[in-house]
Each structure stands twice: as structure tokens, then as C-alpha cells.
Write a structure and sequence with these properties.
The chain has 143 residues and is mostly helical. The chain is 53% helix and 4% strand. The chain has 2 domains: 90 residues, Arc Repressor Mutant, subunit A; 51 residues, no CATH class. Strands 1-2 form a two-stranded antiparallel sheet.
């Protein structure tokens, strides 16, 4: 559904949130292991997310990644839009360039409700919302 880049970005931000909830920071190697991601790939993703303000980083021996209050309150929909664009929320299920209420593809009306539900679910869930479920082992970020 999402690009690999977007999947890793979502997993990394949620993982960083869980691992730094007590005010610490976490390094790239630990993030890569924690979400089962290639280290180089997640480093590039986090560099991009840091530049765009979705995650914060500090250099030095006690450095690493963490999320500030603003980042913790970002919706998953914002991250998806940043990484993959908004086509998943607005595009045609069949990839047609012109698909609308007045010129629908064969699955337009059914897919529209799926699209809207997906957007609503991602918009209503913030990056910081998952720590308790992860800590209780009710949800997982790694195989």
C-alpha cells in the first residue's frame, strides 16, 4: 500500500517514540535493528525526516534521534503525504488520470469510501499514540 520508504519512516518514527519516551535518544544502528531495516536506507530516510522537522537529532557521544512535542503530535497521514504524496488519498484505484464523481472509473464509488476511511484512520492516529500498545506487546514493529 505504501512505498518501502514510507513504511520504514512510519516504523522508525513510532520506534523512536517508544525508545525515547523517557527523554533519551537512539542511534541509527539501534533503530535499524529495532525495525528490521537496512541501516543505510533508514539513515537516509531519517536524514530527510530530520531536515523536514518530523524527527529531531543531536550529534555527539550522547546524540541520536528523538521526537519533540510537535513531532509526537503529527498524524500518520502527514508522514504518508510527506513520503508518498497524497495520491493514496485522492487518486484513482485503477490509476486513471481522470476519475471523478462525474467521470468515475468502474470502482470509483467503492474505492472512494476506502480512501476516505484510510485517510481518517491515519489522520486520527498520531506518532506518539502507540507507545503503550508496543510496551504491552499488543503491537509490534518487527517480524
Amino acid at each position: 500500500m505504501f512505498s518501502k520508504t514510507c513504511e520504514y519512516a512510519l516504523r522508525a518514527l513510532i520506534y523512536i517514540t517508544q525508545q525515547t519516551k523517557d527523554g533519551g535518544k537512539i542511534g541509527i544502528k539501534d533503530i535499524a535493528v529495532g525495525i528490521d531495516s537496512p541501516e543505510y536506507f533508514i539513515a537516509k530516510i531519517l536524514q530527510d525526516l530530520s531536515r523536514k522537522g518530523f524527527v529531531q537529532s543531536a550529534k555527539g557521544p550522547t546524540g541520536g534521534f528523538y521526537l519533540d512535542e510537535t513531532s509526537l503530535n503529527r498524524s500518520l497521514a502527514e508522514i504518508v503525504k510527506e513520503m508518498d504524496g497524497d495520491k493514496i488519498f485522492t487518486g484513482c484505484a485503477l490509476g486513471l488520470k481522470e476519475c471523478s464523481e462525474t467521470h468515475p472509473c468502474p470502482v470509483h464509488h467503492e474505492f472512494k469510501s476506502i480512501r476516505n476511511n484510510l485517510y481518517r484512520m491515519l489522520q486520527n492516529n498520531k506518532v506518539g499514540d502507540f507507545v503503550d500498545r508496543l510496551d504491552a506487546h499488543e503491537a509490534f514493529l518487527k517480524k
